Amino acid sequence: MSSLFNMDKWSRLFADPEIIKGFFEGMKLTIIVSVCGLMLALVLGIIFGVMSVSKSKVLRGIARVYVEFFQNTPLVLQTFFYYYSLPAIRRTLFHMSVKEARLPANVYGIMGVGIYHGAYISEVIRAGIEAVPKGQLEAAYSQGFTTIQAMRYIILPQTLKMIFPPLTNQALNLVKNSSVLALIGGFDLMYKSNSYVCATSNICGYFLCAMMYFIICFPLARLTKYLEVRAQRNPVVKTAKKAEVV
User: Fold this and answer.
1) pLDDT for res 245
2) Among 171, 182, 163, residue whose Cα is nearest residue 108
3) How many Å apart are CA 37 and CA 117, to the nearest integer?
4) Which residue blocks in the chain are alpha helix, DSSP H?
């Protein structure tokens, strides 16, 4: 811990502009992977969340298998599977070379955090849909809406308002879990900091990495808290003012 208070180590960390540039490049890549992973997680979460409340036992079963499997296996293991197995599958199916079959590590990182958090978002969506009174769905059917139309225009808009706090919390966790990219050479923020520390034995690089993650995650944490407090407030009914008699 004394290294963190050694000004010489800090000065060496900030002395080389290329080192700081590398940290910011890693931070930029972490944000890009997090945003893309969140978009994938939202798409999967909505699809499987709707499937989990479907009248079809088959669709509910598929959604349940997806949620249970990805929630109960480690993210690192899932990412390793994509990184090592998918190129082999691509080589076999499309007769590619090893180099051609290997996608950029960032793609596997996006798949890892996206599919993993999609399972959690699916449960958030399911809980939100079930919180909407069933009478609204029945009323939509009585007006000639299909299930997809009822979900799109009536149920999901109401659901999204209720699930913003847990969705924001999932986004926060996804940013932190994007550090798994470092294990497959993704050149993200964690990878950059670990490479610097291993090369220089200067653990100040880890502290700088933590501060950069904090800069990304703290606003999301505050937003989550704000949305939770706002969701607990009772709606205020505004009454119209009485017209003044002239």
Assistant:
1) 44
2) 182
3) 8
4) 7-15, 17-51, 57-71, 75-94, 98-101, 105-131, 134-142, 147-150, 156-177, 189-200, 204-232
The residue among 36 and 53 whose pLDDT is bigger is: 36
Chain position carrying tokens 């989550």:
224
| pLDDT at site 98 | 80
Q: Two tokens at 112?
A: 């890892």
Q: Exposed, middle or buried by CB within 10 Å (0-12, 13-18, 19+), for 207?
A: middle
Q: How many CB atoms lie within 10 A of CB 147?
A: 16
Q: Give this prediction's pTM.
A: 0.85
Q: What is the DSSP string of 76-128?
A: HHHHHHHHHHHHHHHHHHH---HHHHPPPHHHHHHHHHHHHHHHHHHHHHHHH
Degrees to nearest 5, angle at CA 223 with 78 and 234: 120
Amino acid at 164: F
CB 144 within 8 A of CB 201: no
